Automatic annotation (TrEMBL):
UniProt binding sites for ATP: 201
Record-linked InterPro entries: AGC-kinase_C (IPR000961), GPCR_kinase (IPR000239), Kinase-like_dom_sf (IPR011009), Prot_kinase_dom (IPR000719), Protein_kinase_ATP_BS (IPR017441), RGS (IPR016137), RGS_sf (IPR036305), RGS_subdomain_2 (IPR044926)
Top-level taxonomic group: Eukaryota
Entry's Gene Ontology BP terms: regulation of signal transduction; signal transduction
Protein name: G protein-coupled receptor kinase
Family per similarity comment: Belongs to the protein kinase superfamily. AGC Ser/Thr protein kinase family. GPRK subfamily.
A GO CC term assigned to this protein in UniProt: cytoplasm
Length: 525
């Protein structure tokens, strides 16, 4: 490895280790100084007063609402219920039924909801019966009182950063180059104010224009900002520099699955890893499909590992939103991974992604994609012919179950394919291969990954091995381009930004209040 590469890697490793408080700028408190509440009046007027969004979905909103409830003696019962529910969520399946009944007996006695709660619990112990009950209560009078409180004022102050603070390149420190994409490079970066590490995907403006990539870039950005899944990379910021449009994404430092399948040890992964990654990808696809998004680019290269060993789906450039269950057409994807109906110019829907999952599980198991021999690089037309007409083979690396799963997902007829026969992704989750997987715990992030990336390693090519990004000449940027940029550069994405504040400890350290009972939160340091 060359010296430059070693220096770049060790700078990144040090930043990662210091991630959080050590990585903050010494001026961080100044950068995150709350505006005076009088500066938040426009925000207060315009913010949508939706209980679910303000008090459940938004992480800082949820915390402040909870702090408010804790400050009210008459709500103590609800707080205890909230605490019990937190414990409930982390219980194993066996404990949940019993624990659930004890919660009902403790809190819902003599309530008219008791009977219906016990019934739902019996039908399905995993359903959030209590949460429904709790939110029904708290979204009434309590939510109205909350909006009159200093806790809501504080929420507006936090929101001011999200809505009114412009984001520029000065908000970040830049580390090494991580990879190269179609329109530009991806760099490791760190938010100066919080120490949070991210990956910044840059799209060179001249490249985007020359290759008419505006629609694709905006599509990827808009799809990402509408998602909030632990199995898909999150978008944290969208901003511009003089030469590039930038998407700041969840940092995935564990490398992609292509690297893990082909570059470490013998090609392929052991069965526990195959099961775990397949299960997480399956959840990610379900989240996308629930939002009517068809991903269309499933392949090992696009599945990235974080530092704990969980995966996220990345690179949503080819994803498409299907309105009202409509189908799409278009030969879109990567050669060798496209479903027969995609190759064959047919109209298709979510079936294309379940085919992709079949290819992924096949490749993780066999160490090579279906219908391709090791080291073989057939022409695209030959690959397509094989996908349309040939039957893939299953060597002795395949157990009976994984073979059955792959062949059901790789069914050439989309109507017969697993995942496409009415109940969608839950049908895939119910396959015997996943019998040992507890999807509720997996969804909650409570399953320990079978492999944890080494924090002292950088799982990507050396800096000098990543091909330099060529510049384009003779493209001039004009007003039409600026109009498009202004649609793209929407700044901070609320939920991701709020999670960043919480995860890095900035929320806890800054969210102090003045003397008890004072309405105006403490503004000076
Ligand atoms: P493109 O859409 O242009 O192909 P990608 O989104 O695939 O761009 O990113 C290009 C490369 O950058 C990837 O192959 C990967 O090596 C790296 N990369 C992308 N996103 C991340 C991320 N969130 N964390 C770490 N590396 C990333
Ligand atoms: Mg890519
Ligand atoms: Mg892409």
């Amino acid at each position: 490895m060359e010296i430059d590469s070693m220096v770049a890697n060790s700078a990144l490793i040090r930043a990662r280790e210091g991630g959080g408080s050590k990585g903050r700028s010494w001026k961080w408190k100044e950068m995150l100084r709350f505006p005076h509440i009088s500066q938040c009046m426009d925000l207060a007027m315009n913010i949508e007063r939706d209980y679910y969004s303000l008090c459940v979905k938004q992480p800082i909103g949820k915390k402040l609402f909870e702090l408010f409830c804790r400050s009210r003696p008459e709500l103590q019962n609800y707080i205890s219920l909230l605490d019990a529910l937190e414990a409930f969520d982390s219980k194993s399946d066996e404990q949940r039924k019993e624990f659930g009944v004890s919660i009902i007996q403790r809190f819902l006695r003599s309530q008219k909801h008791e009977q219906s709660c016990i019934q739902s619990l019996e039908l399905n112990p995993f359903k959030d019966v209590f949460h429904d009950y709790l939110h029904k209560y708290l979204s009434g009078e309590t939510f109205i009182q909350y909006q009159e409180s200093m806790f809501f004022d504080r929420f507006l102050q936090w929101n001011w950063f999200i809505c009114l603070q412009p984001i520029t390149k000065h908000a970040f420190r830049q580390y090494r180059l991580l990879g190269k994409g179609g329109f530009g490079e991806v760099w490791a970066c760190q938010v100066r104010a919080t120490g949070m590490m991210y990956a910044c995907k840059k799209l060179e403006k001249t490249h985007v224009k020359k290759r008419k990539g505006e629609g694709m870039a905006l599509n990827e950005k808009q799809i990402l900002e509408g998602l909030d899944s632990r199995f898909v990379v999150n978008l944290a910021y969208a901003y511009e520099t003089k030469h590039a449009l930038c998407m700041v994404l969840t940092m995935m430092s564990g490398g992609d699955l292509k690297y893990h399948i082909h570059n470490i040890g013998s090609p392929g992964l052991d069965k526990e890893r195959v099961r775990f990654y397949a299960a997480e990808v399956c959840c990610g696809l379900i989240h996308l499909h629930q939002k009517s998004i068809l991903y269309r680019d499933l392949k090992p290269e696009n599945i990235l590992l974080d530092d704990n060993g969980h995966i996220r789906i990345s690179d949503l450039g080819l994803a498409v939103r299907l309105t009202d269950g409509q189908l799409v057409r278009g030969r879109v994807g990567t050669v060798g991974y496209m479903a027969p109906e995609v190759i064959g110019h047919k109209h298709y829907g979510m079936s294309a992604d379940w085919w992709g999952l079949g290819c992924l599980i096949y490749e993780m198991t066999a160490g090579q994609p279906p219908l391709r021999a090791r080291g073989e690089h057939p022409k695209p037309s030959e690959m397509e012919r094989r996908i349309l007409t040939e039957q893939e083979e299953y060597g002795d690396k395949f157990s009976k179950q994984v073979k059955d799963l792959c062949s059901s997902l790789l069914n050439k007829d989309p109507a017969q394919r697993l995942g496409c026969r009415g109940s969608g992704g839950t049908e895939v989750q119910s396959h015997p291969f996943f019998e040992k997987v507890n999807f509720r715990m997996l969804e909650a992030g409570l399953v320990e990954p079978p492999f944890k990336p080494d924090p002292r390693l950088v799982y990507c090519s050396d800096v000098q091995d990543i091909e330099e990004f060529s510049s384009v000449k003779g493209v001039t940027l004009d007003q039409t381009d600026s109009n498009f940029y202004s649609q793209f550069i929407t700044g901070s994405v609320p939920i991701t930004w709020q999670n960043e504040m919480i995860e890095t400890g900035c929320f806890r350290e800054l969210n102090t209040f003045g003397p008890e009972g004072s309405r105006s939160p403490d503004l000076d340091w």
